[in-house]
Amino acid sequence: MFTGIVEELGEVVGVTPTAQDSALVAVRGPLVTSDARHGDSIAVNGVCLTVVDVDGGVFTADVMGETLRRSALGALRAGDRVNLERAAALGSRLGGHLVQGHVDGVGEVLAREPAARWETVRFRLPATLSRYVVEKGSITVDGVSLTVAEVGADWFAVGLIPTTLSLTTLGARAVGDPVNLEMDVLAKYVERLLGARAADDAGPPVDLPGVAAPGPVR
Predict the structure, then answer these.
(1) Are 177 and 114 within one domain?
(2) Within 10 Å of residue 47's Cβ, how many Cβ atoms?
(3) Using CA atoms, how far apart are residues 101 and 187, in angstroms rounded to an integer?
(4) Domain presence at residue 37
C-alpha cells in the first residue's frame, strides 16, 4: 500500500524488453533505494513494482505485459522523470489516501490553467471510470494523491499547489500527455457490495424444507 505522497523524482535509466510483452525497467532514485532490498515494492508513476535488483542508487523491476498495457509505463524511455514512492510502513502518517498501486486506466491531460499560486489541470478519463470520481473525493494521478475539484462526464479537474508542481512530474505534463489513474479503492468496494445486495434483493424467495416462512413483525 502507498499514500500517494511522492518521495522523489527519479529518472529512467533504461528499458530493456525481456520477452514479447514484458520489460526490465531501471530507475535511478537515491532516496527510495537507500533502504531498498530485493522484493520490496516501489511505486513508479503510481504503478506498484517489485524490486529485483539494487545497484548504486538504481533499482530494477520486471514489468509484465499486463502492466504495460494497462498503464502508461509502456511509453517510458531512458531519461524520463518518474514519481517514486516506497511502500507505506505500519504506524506512519497517512498524508494522502490509501493507494494500492494498481492502475485502473490511462487518462490524458486536457488543459492547464495557471494562476498566481496554483494551477488547475483538467484530465480526460475512460468513461468506465467516471462513476468512481466525485467532487472533493480522492484520485491518484501518476502516483500523486489529489483532491477532485470538478467533475464532468468524461473529465475531472484538480488544483496543483507549487509543491506538487515542482516535486512531481505533474508540473511538466503537457496537454495530450498520458497519465496513470487509480480510483479510490473504497468506491470500488462500495459498488461491489451494493451490486451484490441489489442482486440478492431481486432474486426469487427461497423455500427451505422444514423452515416456516417468517410471519409479520408486530
Answers:
(1) yes
(2) 25
(3) 16
(4) yes
